[in-house]
Amino acid sequence: MRRALQSIALHAGLAAGVALTLLPLLWMVSASFMPAGEASAVPPRLLPSAPTLEHYRALFTRMSLARHLANSALVATAVTLIALVLNSMAGYAFAKLRFAGRERIFRLLMAALVIPAQVTMLPLFLLLRELGCVNTYWGVIIPGMASIFGIFLVRQYAQSIPDELIEAARIDGASEFRIFRSIVVPVLKPIIVTLAVFTLLGTWNDFMWPLIVLTDRDLYTLPVALASLSREHVQDNELMMAGSVLTTLPVLLVFIALQRYYIEGLTVGSVKG
């Protein structure tokens, strides 16, 4: 009886946690379909009295949100693809290749991991200005092409690859690139997908850096465009909710599609024989 009560209490707590997590998201979707002014009604309404798509039409016709959506997709895709290549190669090198100063360099990277990102924004901006990358897509892409966390994540996973497997490939005459492409990458697939999810979500939702480095409104990513939209339409809560839905939906679909690999990357830490 006691165990049954504990199970009921556990499931009730989990259900309450799920409800608290999903309720704001569900209300955001519901409010995006409400007529103008209804989301601000007192008491608040949970469902629209007359569902309408006028706010979504306004975003794509009057606000040119399709351009900002394309900007975010371009930047997030480019950063994710480049970061996967660079981080996976660097992580594998720190885990399995022997070179002078490997441990010292890695410890230096780990020390730099604790430096707040805000501290590096000014020198990074000045550097990109000298390179002529301010107010360009490259100004947003370059800082995200490699990350210390990504290198660390891949290195920790790559250490589980047996040295004998790599040495056998070298004895057979395989080049280092062939070993990396044909042996290491398939083994690293779960953690690469996990890193892809982290990178895509972080880049897609990034607001501060694109706001700093981009001045041309046509180059704005979706979070920056949505923030500027909120300044122009302070009282239009329904329009803001429609913009928030369009910002959240793409990455939510990507996360759901890759969820199995993402969980596997977080939980599996050894090579299955």
Architecture blueprint of SSEs:
Blueprint lengths: L1 H31 L21 H8 L3 H32 L5 H11 L4 H14 L6 H5 L6 H11 L4 H9 L4 H12 L1 H17 L2 H6 L8 H11 L4 H21 L1 H9 L6
Helix pairs in contact: 1-13, 2-13, 3-7, 3-10, 10-13, 10-14, 12-13
Walk me through this protein's architecture.
This protein has 273 residues and is mainly alpha-helical. Helices cover 72% and strands 0% of the residues. The chain contains 14 helices and no strands. Helix 10 packs across helix 14.
Helix content: over 70%
Radius of gyration: 23 Å
Shape: globular
Strand coverage percent: under 5%
Report the uncertain regions. 269-273
The biggest sheet amounts to: none
| Average pLDDT, all residues | 86
Number of strands: 0
Q: Structural class, judged by helices and strands?
A: mainly alpha
In angstroms, what separates the terminal alpha carbons?
43 Å
Query: N-to-C SSE series?
Result: HHHHHHHHHHHHHH
Number of helices: 14
Keyphrases for this structure?
273 residues; mainly alpha; disordered C terminus
Structure, briefly:
The protein is mainly α and 273 residues long. Helix content is 72%, strand content 0%.
